[in-house]
Amino acid sequence: MGTIVNGANGGFKGKAGSIIGSSWKSINYIKGLYKKRTKPLTEAQLIQQEKFKLLMRFLLPINFLIKIGFGRKGMDRQTPINAAFQFNLENVISGVYPDFELDYSKVSISTGTLYGGGTVGVSHDTGELTYVWSTEANELLETFADDLVYVLAYHAGQDEFVTSQVSSTRADGTVTFGLPEHLQTGSVHTWMFLSNRMKTRLSKSVYLGEVQLI
User: Fold this and answer.
1) Do 93 and 151 share a structural domain?
2) How many CB atoms lie within 10 A of CB 4?
């Protein structure tokens, strides 16, 4: 049985007949009950469904970073993971249905106006990845020594992500971390972005390239 929240003019919550009332982030919604599909999906629907699965399968395991990188975008209307999905959808998927694939060089794991890491790079040596960036801080650009740095590596062959377990700052200029033994062959795709200490300002993520391992 449904209830009216905050009086006769308030939002509707619960089930009443064929409709359901709910709210999210103080926004009230009314929707119809789910109806079992009897018609087969069209080709356009199948294409969108396949794109959705491919992109969300990539983003969901790194939701802990997406919550930071897209935590400020559309925060009053959608979740960070949905914001990241919408931001990437039109740019990162290539190929022809059903053989879609991700263009990792176009994937964004953060967006914002904070100045990034300047001259950045990544290298590999004996099972370890080393990321480097500029340590220069500029008060005029509102960049500071304690800005936080986030790094990410993705091993497409094993479908696994790796990141540093150590928190790094702009002042550090570098971070090195080891790859698990089963990820030390093949290649990894790499990214980096920064935030201020309060995580209220973000830089655009930078794709650092595909690093060949052994």
Assistant:
1) no
2) 14
How many domains does the chain contain in total? Answer: 3
Q: Which domain holds residue 82?
A: 38-111
Q: Please answer whether residues 5 and 11 qualify as being in contact, where contact means their C-beta atoms are separated by less than 8 angstroms.
A: yes
Q: Which of 111, 138, 157 is the last residue of a domain?
A: 111
The model's pLDDT over 149-193, given as tens digits with 9 standing for 90+, comes to: 999 999 999 999 999 999 999 999 999 999 999 999 999 999 999
Least confident of 18-22, 42-46, 207-211: 18-22
Same domain, 67 and 19: no
Contacts of residue 41, Cβ cutoff 8 Å, sequence gap at least 6: 49
CA dist list (Å): 79 to 30, 50, 51, 131: 19, 21, 19, 29
Residue 123 and residue 107 share a domain: no
Exposed/middle/buried for residue 112 (C-beta within 10 Å: 0-12, 13-18, 19+): buried
Q: How far is CA 10 from CA 28, 32, 33, 77, 136, in A?
A: 9, 19, 21, 19, 52
Q: What is the pLDDT of residues 66-97, one digit of tens each?
A: 999 999 876 678 899 999 999 999 999 999 99
pTM above 0.85, yes or no: no
